[in-house]
Amino acid sequence: MTVGEQRLSSGFNKITVQDDPRALLPLLKSQLPHSIPLLRRLQHNLAFPSKTARLLTTFPGVEPPSGPWLAAYVDLPRGRETQMTLYSSLERESVDDDDKDPAVISTLHGPPETLALARAQLLALLSYTKSALLPGYLASLTAPSAFLIGNLHTGLMALLKQSGIYTDPETVPGIRIHRYDNPPYVKYLFRTVHSHSPSRKLDTGLPPGYRFQDRQGRMGVLPHHYALVRSRTHLPRSDETLSRIPGVAVYVDRPGEGEETPIAWVFLGLDGSLATLFVELEHRGKGIAEALSRGLMQRGMAEGGIWREVGEEGEVWVHANVLATNGASRRVLEKLGGEVGWTNTWTVVELQS
């Protein structure tokens, strides 16, 4: 365990690099569903370790303080993909009825001194990332000294603004925001059914003429389909990433033989969220998106998989992100039983000297 000094005017100055991220799993599980982006990202890294990933916390050891705390998974060499996922304990303590309205931007609640401490923790963590982790990453790059933070609670994002308001263009001193989502994404939460083994057989739920396997009995999105997947999304993922996340594909019965191309697919991303859900236009409106998503949650959250240990009890959570303005995708998630949790954003943040 490494402790770094990051002195701020608030007096908060210690960031810990956790040597044993697995030891933090019980704490993050106790914070579900609010901690789900960070928990799932950490679990994925335990299954597919990255030598450049770090788990940072604002406290030493595995026992958090009684006041607010923050933890972050950081892997800067991920480049165009999400480089940082953050969680603050204030997210769990700031739930109110307004969070169920996707038109309302989620905020953090607490006395001014509590919010000031949370802001200091966030700035200290960003400062540590810049001073201790960024130089090694930039040694072989010419990119600006900024990093992409994903699944960032809009209340935490607001702490980087002068007024504490998410939409305020004025940031706190030393921070430059290159981009963020306005309106933000809406976080949907799902409690999935328990599956006791990572069975290859899925409950179909597909209309007649559609199937989860190609003619050769192969399931999922195959490597030679990755280019097709990338061509249908504005959020590119590398072949390496796509090969390390669970995916489900749908094929349609057609005359002839030979290689088939899927007409729909969906993945569970590195953070365990429903991602890259796509159905070709001529096949929409048939319930394929819903069947795909249910099949993926059944397969991806099976016991003994990446995100659920053998014998693990309790609720199994899945999450998804969709823009508040994307009515079609929101309807799909609501048909699946998704409930609005909070709002979040993907942002590119630069700490200026």
Automatic annotation (TrEMBL):
Keyword Transferase listed: yes
Mind telling me which InterPro entries this protein's record contains? Acyl-CoA_N-acyltransferase, Acyl_CoA_acyltransferase, GCN5-like_dom
Its domain of life reads: Eukaryota
Q: Which UniProt keywords apply?
A: Transferase
Q: Does the keyword Transferase apply?
A: yes
Please provide, alphabetically and separated by semicolons, the GO molecular function terms listed in this UniProt record.
Answer: acyltransferase activity, transferring groups other than amino-acyl groups
SUPFAM superfamilies reported for this sequence: Acyl-CoA N-acyltransferases (Nat) (SSF55729)
- Per UniProt, residues of the GCN5-related N-acetyltransferase Rv2170-like domain are 263-346
The cross-references to Pfam families, in alphabetical order and at most eight, read: FR47
What is this protein called in UniProt?
Acetyltransferase, GNAT family
Native organism is Aspergillus novofumigatus (strain IBT 16806)
